[in-house]
Design a protein that fits this description.
The complex is a heterodimer of chains A (329) and B (252). Chain A has a domain of 228 residues. Chain A is mainly alpha-helical and 329 residues long. The longest helix of chain A is centred in the C-terminal third of the chain and has 27 residues. Classes of the chains: A mainly alpha (329), B alpha/beta (252).
């Protein structure tokens, strides 16, 4: 695709995101660190979703399920490590080297199995079926009383890694930020590769790609699995951050929020989903301080952005810059 | 010229009560430019979709080099040396012109399950795609967004894509569709250059173009081929005149 890197904007956003939270934290504003960690993790989910939604044109309405599954891959082993059980599977552990790979593998498998079915459908049907699978996971977790059902599950101890402590907000932030950057680089690399060209081609014109000789179903399935694994990884981080997980985090409204972040920022761009997540969370934070009915103005704002900015915030900026350069010319 | 590369036997396809393809028998010889003509709604595009595999016939067979490919999926047929172009321009408008052509090249130049190296640095693919664009006279627009080009240029990109896929057999669905007189002439010149290097099945409304280009012509009426022969034979065929050419033929 043409010229969609926005290097200056990307660098600005990423540097601000790296510097501001630790500075505020060290100057005593600890609240902002919480906000920043949540923001970075949700941005990572948005980036993972942008691979299939932005570049693949696959409107997945079930992305929160991966996040939730990833979080439970931290919560369940931690639960057993403290209260016993599952020792035979080697899952009763606090080791991050078990939690994180487990989250990635479980989400990859879930994406593979559901993707096999979902990707047979197109358009509205794809949206509905991805949502249906996510709701299935939601109700499955609700029904498992061992892990708290719909009351949720408290994670009494965070994942353990040698050398770093996730109980330290600065270190947790550093880990989340690093993983976000790596995710962005990975997605960027994938979409520019041969594979990524085919994925984007199938978004633009699926039948053409088939008659050119591509089994687009397989390409889309692989992208769907990669996207699910990355979201699962983000979920594992989210579980470590909140230390409380509940089925609510895989509700379809959550999936909608992730979709919105991607669309708000700008679909097929590297920085778009991150920018979308930043704006989404900051605006949400500000409005909820002003009024308890914050969801109403928030909704209106979202509708306006979707209606009037083609290509999301990134699209708005590019068209502004274009009209400016026209004026000077 | 006698070797048959593509053949259909008793091909049938209905949509509800409409028989779009009705006992269709066609034999395309290696190296020829075989035109398929017929009035609107004769089932020309439906024939193409069954040849390239995006639609399956209700019954009958499609054979490529003598091998039954009726059940072979479209993406695999492409790897057997078959490509098609579209009557309604079917490009990826948000990609560059070069990317569109490179995707066709890439399909036949190694695996596309490669996740790491940027496709834009894939020299052999990019060079071949550029060469194909050069052949259709669009090398200087390679890096423009496809959306920004004119309809006539889009028609030429369709041909560049067919060339880039290195297919022995090209199914061209009305390459002249929507072109002006001058643009049509340019397209005829282009097809004349390609002709002979590839076997071409040409579906076309433009009779001047068909009679200028075709080695053989098949006439399709209501999903059935009523006659096949050289341009001269088709012109002199009474049945064809009655069914299709009508007044136009008396003017020729």
């Amino acid at each position: 695709m043409l010229n969609q890197d926005h290097p200056k904007l990307t660098l600005t956003v990423m540097v601000l995101l790296a510097v501001l939270p630790p500075v505020l934290y060290l100057s005593g504003q600890t609240f902002y660190m919480d906000l920043a960690i949540r923001l970075v993790i949700l941005a990572m989910v948005a980036v993972s979703l942008s691979l299939i939604l932005g570049y693949g044109g696959l409107v997945s309405f079930g992305h929160a399920a991966f996040v939730g599954l990833g979080a439970y891959c931290v919560g369940i082993p931690a639960h057993h490590a403290i209260y016993g059980g599952l020792e035979s599977l080697g899952l009763a552990t606090l080791s991050g080297w078990v939690h994180f790979p487990l989250a990635i593998v479980v989400c990859g498998l879930f994406a593979f199995i559901t993707g096999l079915v979902c990707l047979k459908t197109k358009g509205v049907y794809f949206i509905m079926i991805t949502m249906a699978f996510a709701q299935m996971v939601y109700y499955a977790i609700v029904s498992i009383k061992t892990y708290g059902g719909d009351d949720g599950l408290t994670i009494n101890s965070r994942s353990e890694f040698p050398g770093i402590s996730l109980d330290n907000p600065l270190q947790l932030f550093a880990l989340c930020y690093t993983v976000l950057v790596l995710t962005m680089l990975l997605v960027r690399m994938i979409v520019r590769s041969r594979f990524g060209m085919v994925l984007q081609g199938a978004k633009g014109n699926n039948e053409r790609m088939v008659t050119l000789g591509y089994n687009t179903y397989r390409y889309q399935l692989i992208a769907y699995v990669i996207s699910g694994m990355l979201a699962g990884l983000a979920g594992a981080l989210l579980g470590n951050f909140t230390t409380f997980i509940s089925p609510e985090m895989m509700d379809w409204t959550r999936s909608g929020e992730f979709m919105f972040m991607v669309i708000l920022g700008g679909l097929a761009t590297t920085i778009g989903p991150v920018l979308g997540a930043v704006v989404f969370i900051v605006v949400e934070e500000i409005l909820s301080k002003i009024t308890i009915y914050w969801q109403l103005p928030f909704g209106v704002l979202l509708i306006l952005v979707v209606l009037y900015s083609k290509g999301g915030l990134i699209g708005m900026m590019t068209s502004l810059r274009k009209s400016k350069s026209k004026e000077t010319a | 010229m006698s070797e048959v590369i593509l053949e259909t036997r008793h091909l049938m396809k209905s949509f509800g009560g409409i028989r779009a393809t009705d006992d269709l028998n066609l034999a395309v010889h290696k190296g020829e430019l075989h035109a398929v003509i017929g009035p609107n709604g004769a089932g020309k595009t439906t024939l193409i979709t069954q040849l390239c595999g995006t639609q399956l016939p209700d019954s009958g067979q499609v054979l490529l080099r003598g091998k039954d490919i009726t059940q072979v999926p479209a993406h695999r047929r492409a790897h057997m040396g078959m490509t098609r172009s579209y009557q309604i321009t079917s490009l990826i408008l948000d990609m560059s012109v070069l990317d569109n052509v490179a995707l066709a090249a890439q399909a036949h130049m190694g695996s596309s399950y490669r996740f790491f190296r940027p496709a834009a640095q894939d020299r052999p693919v990019r060079d071949w795609a550029k060469a194909c664009l050069d052949k259709v006279g669009l090398a200087d627009k390679a890096h423009q967004l496809t959306r920004e080009l004119s309809h006539g240029e889009h028609r030429h990109i369709e041909i560049a894509i067919a060339l880039a896929s290195k297919a022995e057999l090209m199914l061209l669905d009305e390459p002249m569709a929507g072109l002006g007189v001058e643009e049509s002439r340019a397209m005829v010149r282009l097809l004349q250059e390609i002709k002979g290097q590839h076997t071409i099945v040409l579906i076309e409304h433009d009779m001047d173009a068909v009679f200028a280009l075709a080695d053989r012509i098949s006439v399709l009426v209501y999903g059935h081929i009523i006659a096949t022969g050289s341009p001269a034979e088709i012109r002199g065929n009474d049945e064809v005149q009655a069914a299709y050419l009508g007044e136009e033929s008396t003017a020729v």
